[in-house]
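Weekend entry, working from home. Most of the wet-lab plans are on hold until the incubator is repaired, so I used the time to fold the two sequences that have been sitting in the queue since the last round of cloning. Logging both here for the record. First:
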Amino acid sequence: MSRGFFISSTGFMAIGPLAGEKGDIICILPAWNVPLIIRKMDDCYFLFGECFVWGLMNGEGTNRGLGLGYEVFRLR
């Protein structure tokens, strides 16, 4: 899978799937080592792949108290 560099809307530098688009979501799952890129389409979310995000790897996103919030996603 081809990857490219991007900066999230909250300022995190990342490398992720080239299929990514503005508005995609960086999703951090508990007990998962790397963030995922998901996209809302109609009434569900689609998983596009893993990404490397400086400052959010190895659980840092859930452990740092960033106040990013929690949301339940249904992936297909």
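Second, folded right after the first finished:
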Amino acid sequence: MYFISKLLLVDDKTAIIGSSNVNDRSMLGHRDSEVAVIITDEEFETIKMNGQDYGSGKFCGSLRRMLMREHLGIFKSKSDIDITDPICDKFYKDIWIATAAKNSSIYEKVFAVVPTDDVRAFSQLKDYLNKPKLANSDKSEDKVEAKKCLNEIKGHLVLTPLFFLCDEDLTPAWGTQEKLMPQSLWT
């Protein structure tokens, strides 16, 4: 038995925490058991959202801020990173996206990361995977460099590759055993 927890925070006012999935496996009622809790704040504090005053729930707002600190790798209570206004451009672009971009760049340098925007067609995949990366090197200076790079990772954020296989026709291959995508995509 395993439990995969999901979290949805809505407007710093409502939290849904649980395992429920919107699919037949969960919803038919005879396969998986699901459970979830809905927490709706009744106490609020005034914070800024995009520079405007906003009523944030005490529980949901503090949970969001705690998770944002974790995702950004801010483990000390005092930090020079201001997470109080999560939707202003200064935070979103200069902190959130910048951290994700830096982490992504480090992972690309050290590992052969797939999916990646560097691979836009199946014909490029093999070359990309065979390209030397720090993690695959036998040179001691590369191993030291890899460790140094990985120590610069902050939190858990990375960018989602938007152009991986964008030059391919990924129309479902109905004549194949896989029914959806060719097996070579996953192996």
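Plan for Monday: verify the second prediction. Residues 99 and 157 are 7 Å apart (CA to CA).
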